[in-house]
Design brief:
It is built from six helices and 17 strands. The chain is an alpha+beta fold. A hairpin with a 2-residue loop joins strand 6 (88-91) and strand 7 (94-98).
Length: 464
């Protein structure tokens, strides 16, 4: 056996949540582990294997956060690594941290402002990173310690063009990254992130462009913070447990726990006094959806490329799906089928309200050409209108049964969908296939389809 060594860490592997992943933790001698990540087979499972444990002993697996990463769709990301053995973790999508924790920060993907050309909305001159009250839309404010061009231990001004000459601003390197130290504090003399009156929704570690383009939201990143009392209150994530074999081997497979954030982790296997640790990188789909009922479905949607989210890197899971977006989602789901044909470019308007110049003309034209929709009785498609749940039942049925006749409805599938309902057959089919189970016995046919539920519908449909 090559590369044998007495160690508990065999190699560093990188995994995207939503992809099948194998991590090998070895208690005694170990070869280098290998991992094959195939974006075409999305399973959202993590498999941890190990050997050298006591025979027939319970082996527990946990995920311990060693650094946290958050990114947006504009290409910027922040990586936070605690200094001096300090602990960080995750609580329902928020970064758990003790106030006063010192961290190393690397911000990547930054444009370099005037160094690289004229200052424009796509090439701003500088950025601020700070802890401040969470604001859903707009600039987080007030900030702990304030924001200034002088910088401080609690906030950073990131620029190659500081006003007034040299300052404590953190420079942006040629590769678009900036590295510096920071202290994450929960309060100052005038403001406290843990006070519901000061910050009803808590605080974020927030990246934004500096005062020279203060209205530019394209580069925003907001990492939710959860301040805890001490290091012992910083959580690790239980991953699973299993009894080792008579030869001391173990394999634990489970979905990556929800509520975690992207970043580096140590996968820790423990059996009594025997402990192994394996580093792994986990990349989650969207910064605003790290846990929830449909988390694995949204991860699948991102992993397959059906969606990349919104320009600022969020997914907005509770938002309604528009008909034009649904056309795109259905078309991209269609492309996952082996041998699926790519739709031609749109050269003729499929509907009066969908011109050739419409950004989703090709997908809507495919939807019409495939017989999935004929539009409304007035001949329009209404691309900006929201999709109702009854409509998606019909869309999915017609995708599954091309050119098929409408299914008959011989019994009520849900308490609010009678056999005379115009979409009863399709809704009954949807329930029978396990694509929808409804809620409290109801389907709510005329409700809008939320983006998280849409992910679940497509994920289950694709598995048929």
């Amino acid at each position: 056996m090559r590369n044998l060594r007495r160690t508990t860490i065999s190699t560093l592997v990188t995994a995207a949540l939503g992809l099948s992943l194998t991590v090998t933790g070895i208690a005694l001698a170990a070869p280098t582990a290998t991992t094959d990540l195939n974006p075409g087979t999305v399973k959202a499972n993590l498999t941890v294997t190990g050997k050298g444990f006591p025979a027939n002993t319970s082996v527990n697996a946990r995920l311990k956060t060693t650094s946290a990463v958050i990114a947006n769709q504009s290409g910027q990301s922040i990586r936070i690594t605690p200094k001096g053995g300090a602990a960080i973790g995750w609580v329902d999508g928020s970064l758990a941290v003790v106030s006063g924790t010192e961290v190393d920060v690397v911000v990547s993907g930054l444009p370099r402002g005037a160094v690289a050309g004229p200052i424009t909305p796509k090439n701003p001159d500088g950025f601020y990173l700070f802890t401040a009250k969470h604001v859903d839309n707009g600039v987080n404010s007030p900030a702990v310690g304030g924001i200034s061009m002088e910088g401080s231990s609690e906030q950073a001004w990131i620029t190659n063009n500081p006003i007034g000459g040299p300052s404590v601003a953190a420079a942006i390197a040629a590769d678009g990254s900036s590295s510096f130290g920071l202290i994450i504090n929960k309060s100052d003399t005038a403001f406290d992130c843990t006070n519901p009156t000061d910050a009803p929704a808590g605080c974020d570690l927030s990246l934004r462009v500096d005062h020279r383009q203060s209205g530019n939201r394209a580069f925003d990143i907001k990492l939710p913070l959860k301040f805890v009392a001490n290091a012992a209150a910083v959580p690790t994530a239980a991953f699973g447990s299993k009894t080792s074999t008579a030869s001391g081997t173990v394999a634990i497979t489970a979905a990556v726990p929800t509520g975690l954030g992207s970043g580096s982790y140590a996968v820790v296997l423990t059996a009594g006094a025997t402990v192994t640790s394996q580093p792994v990188e986990i990349l989650l789909p969207f910064w605003d959806y790290r846990s929830g009922l449909f988390f694995q479905d949204v991860a699948w949607l991102r992993g397959t490329g059906i969606t990349t989210g919104n320009p600022n890197g969020d997914y907005q899971p509770a938002a309604a799906v528009t008909r034009q977006a649904m056309a795109a989602f259905l078309y991209r789901t269609h492309l996952l089928t082996p041998g699926a044909k790519t739709a031609p470019a749109c050269t003729k308007a499929p509907f009066p309200d969908v011109p050739v110049s419409h950004p989703f003309c090709r997908e809507i034209n495919w939807l019409k050409g495939s017989g999935i929709t004929g539009g409304f009785s007035d001949g329009t498609f209404k691309p900006g209108a929201n999709v109702e749940r009854q409509a998606i039942a019909r869309f999915l049925y017609r995708m599954a049964v091309p050119n098929g006749t409408a299914p008959k409805c011989t019994g009520k599938p849900f308490t609010d969908v009678g056999i005379t309902h115009p979409f009863c057959g399709e809704i009954r089919w949807m329930k029978a296939k396990g694509i929808s189970t409804g809620a409290n016995g109801k389907f709510s046919p005329v409700d809008n389809v939320a983006r998280d539920a849409m992910a679940a519908f497509l994920h289950r449909f694709n598995a048929l």
